[in-house]
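Chapter review: from sequence to fold.
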Amino acid sequence: MIELVQMSDDHILQVAALEAQCFSAPWSEKAILGELTNPLSYWLVALEEDKVVGYVGSQTVMGEADMMNLAVLPEYRRQGVARCLVKTLIEKLALQGVCSLTLEVRASNAAALSLYENLGFTKVGCRPRYYTKPIEDAWILRKEWKL
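The token string follows.
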């Protein structure tokens, strides 16, 4: 059974390894660790026993949050882990008085675009050449809710 918990020091190595597995420009262990002491940050991990199978992170400023990263181990994809992480993040942010969540996603990432659109995010803009390795545009997506 998968459990969602707030990220702690115990998860850093596994989150960094998942970052490296999923992204061409991954965050370092040091950068991820820094999120734990950043008062603007809120990160969740999906655990199966003690194994991190996914995570999501955000930063909030003045009632608006930005999703920093979302990743799920390949063997756990298409099982609702990412959906659960995003929905739970939104619930936790709303409890903190946050009323919106914005994110960037690679224009070619059809699976992620479908997930976000199904969760009620809408396209609000484009960031040309936002991603590197390879260079690619990013769609800016946003979801708002009432408190």
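Two observations follow directly from the output. The CA atoms of residues 20 and 27 lie 8 Å apart. The mean pLDDT is 96.
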